[in-house]
Design a protein that fits this description.
The termini are far apart. The chain is mostly helical. Strands 1-2 form a two-stranded antiparallel ribbon. Helix 4 (about 45-55) crosses helix 10 (about 170-225), helix 5 (about 60-70) packs across helix 14 (about 300-330) and helix 10 (about 170-225) packs across helix 17. The model has no long low-confidence stretch (mean pLDDT about 80). The protein is globular, with a radius of gyration of 24 Å. The protein has helices at about 5-25, 25-30, 30-35, 45-55, 60-70, 85-100, 105-115, 120-155, 155-160, 170-225, 250-260, 265-280, 290-295, 300-330, 350-355, 360-395, 400-425, 430-455, 460-480, 490-505, 510-520, 530-540, 550-575, 575-605, and strands at about 340, 340-345.
Length: about 600
């Protein structure tokens, strides 16, 4: 139960978000770029912290705590479903490629790549549809996670006394989600990107303090108690099968493992890596991550921002994830995980907070986690607004005044929120919508958005039909099967590939001048030889991008560094000192290699290619 001090801290945070929205309202109203991109004058480290804060979301943290509780150190691989290592690809090369375009949204980038002919316009339309679908999915995902979280701390018996209508038990989390969503709507709709970034900085500071405190509490508890876990729980390595058996320890966990369908872990891992690499080379999906890259001052700062996001997010987040997971195992019998008589492992995080966090710190932590939800919600809402305003409204009303654009920004934000709330009522749990977003929906995105970077002949018609032929099965398949979404990712991929190739060769290539402009500004590697040869006729100094091997090596080193960054805080809390020291040594070696083989090179190239 919340005490007076905790309630005061939470209220202070909520008031702070309102004040930030009001304070930055005038800046946001100056222009479209000021509202959607913060005027492109926000420093890279602020955007990096904001991006990390946006990824430190409440639903994702609940999911990670559940995974770590159930699967132990083997759980570090499962977030590759997103895939989490896409940030490494962005850091190494894709963030600079994307930022060189100087556009406002991912859909606007489509015109930069394909032009404004029939294929370009169709491609523009389909990416707007995809962007809005994914934004609505992420908003519903955050919405249900927040509701489950708040339900633990604000007993419905107290709230229902002040509500003049009945709310069915299964919709109580949704009611809480609606209430707290309104605060995020206020500062994101009023303050635009600048309001989001400054509020994210406040949230990140709160979460860092809370994460360290939780990790220390768990570290002390590990020194005083013995943890009873299955064989293999403490080992991050795995074989063809998961081989985690909770029988005789916490029998109910085996039901959770069966429902997750991760038991054939070798096959699951190979599919996950295959999907993850394709998703990563396709570039960022059109959401808040892309908007933060486009908001940087220049391409070099875009790369720095992406690298800083990794360093800022992972250690802080896993101090909290590891701390709560280990406390939940040590004191499992004290947790309240039932909702309407049904055991719900996604409530481990809020139940552990209620049980183990002292007064004062509880208020700070709850404020931080509420902020985490609002940060992700606000960033995603900003991205959805960007597509609706920039890529639909202004496409047909290019001469709209600032006052009209302002009204459209506000109106589109409110409509998106209302639709996401309605969708949230149809979501059963965090894991179900997460699986659909990262596996089925993103399966429709991968092929078209990979080919657009690396193959000159790929045109707007190919992009459009590749996306359409992927989105349709992604929407239909979940209605007819209970199979884990990742397992039909290859099917969606093949359908989308067929649509991309057939669509490409049913239409002529993209206009040569558009392709030359794209290649000259972006400078990708891949299959661009015909365009490069034509450019050389006009500009003999233009050379081919020969960085493929170096970029891929740096990605490998970056993924290793990212993975040990996850392990270090977990080993620290577990008092597993030798693996922790070994992980730190590996991290130092990786950082040294990246300094020499990545950072020194992109700084050197900045004066030549990054303008």
């Amino acid at each position: 139960m919340l005490q007076g001090l905790d309630i005061a801290i939470i209220l202070a945070y909520l008031v702070g978000t309102i004040l930030i929205g009001l304070a930055l309202r005038k800046k946001a109203q100056k222009s479209k770029d000021d509202y959607l991109l913060g005027g492109k004058d926000l420093p890279w480290y602020m955007l990096g912290l904001s991006n990390a804060s946006g990824m430190f979301d409440i639903s994702g943290t609940m999911w990670l705590v559940t995974l770590t509780f159930v699967y132990g150190l083997k759980s570090i691989w499962i977030p590759w479903l997103w895939p989490v290592f896409n940030q490494v690809f962005l850091m190494v090369f894709l963030a600079t490629w994307l930022r060189r375009s100087q556009v406002t949204t991912g859909a606007e980038w489509i015109h930069f790549r394909f032009g404004k002919g029939q294929g370009g316009n169709r491609s523009h339309s389909i990416i707007v549809i995809f962007a809005i679908l994914s934004c609505l999915g992420f908003l519903a995902y955050g919405f249900i996670g927040l509701g489950k979280f708040v339900e633990i701390f604000i007993p419905w018996e107290i709230v229902s006394a002040y509500i003049p209508f009945n709310v069915p038990a299964e919709y109580i989390p949704h009611f809480y989600g609606v209430v707290f969503t309104m605060f995020a709507v206020f500062y994101s709709v009023l303050g635009g990107m600048s309001g989001i970034v400054w509020t994210d900085l406040l949230q990140y500071s709160i979460m860092t303090i809370s994460s360290i405190a939780i990790a220390v509490i768990a570290w002390q508890a590990m020194g005083e108690h013995e943890m009873n876990v299955p064989d293999g729980w403490m080992n991050p390595l795995f074989g063809w099968e998961l081989d985690i058996d909770w029988s005789g320890i916490i029998d109910e966990v085996n039901d959770k493992i069966a429902s997750d369908q991760y038991s054939l872990f070798g096959i699951f891992f190979m599919l996950m890596v295959f999907k993850g690499i394709l998703s990563s080379v396709a570039g960022p999906a059109p959401n808040y991550d892309m908007q933060k890259i486009l908001s940087t001052k220049n391409p070099l700062e875009a790369a720095k921002m992406s690298a800083f996001s990794i360093a800022a997010l992972i250690p802080t987040r896993y101090l909290m994830v590891g701390g709560f997971s280990i406390l939940a195992i040590l004191f499992y019998e004290d947790l309240r995980l039932e909702t309407a008589g049904i055991l719900d492992f996604e409530k481990i995080l809020p139940a552990a907070i209620e049980q183990f966090v002292p007064v004062g710190l509880l208020g700070l932590l709850l404020a931080g986690l509420l902020a985490a939800f609002m940060s992700t919600f606000a960033g995603t809402l900003n991205a959805a607004q960007a597509y609706l305003v920039n890529d639909i409204y202004l496409k047909y009303r290019p001469d709209a005044s600032n006052q009209e654009v302002k009204k459209m920004n506000y109106g589109s934000g409110i409509v998106v929120v209302l639709i996401s709330i309605v969708l949230g009522f149809f979501v059963l749990d965090v894991n179900s919508i997460l699986q659909w977003i990262v596996s089925a929906l993103y399966g429709s995105y991968v092929i078209s958005n990979t080919l657009k970077w690396y193959w000159w002949r790929f045109n707007g018609e190919g992009y459009f039909w590749g996306m359409v032929s992927g989105i349709i099965p992604a929407m239909i398949f979940p209605l007819f099967t209970d199979t884990l979404d990742l397992y039909y990712f290859p099917v969606i991929l093949l359908i989308s590939l067929a649509g991309s190739i057939i669509g490409t060769y049913t239409a002529p290539p993209t206009n040569e001048e558009i392709l030359k402009d794209f290649y000259l500004k972006t400078r990708p590697w891949g299959f661009w030889k015909p365009i490069l040869e034509r450019l050389k006729d006009e500009l003999p100094e233009v050379t081919r991008n020969k960085n493929f091997s170096r970029d891929m090596f740096n990605v490998l080193i970056g993924v290793i560094a990212q993975t040990v960054l996850v392990l270090i805080p977990l080993y620290f809390i577990l008092h597993d000192n030798i693996p922790m020291i070994l992980s730190i040594v590996i991290l130092v070696i990786c950082v040294f290699i990246l300094k020499k083989n990545w950072w020194d090179h992109i700084k050197k190239e900045a004066g030549v290619n990054i303008k």
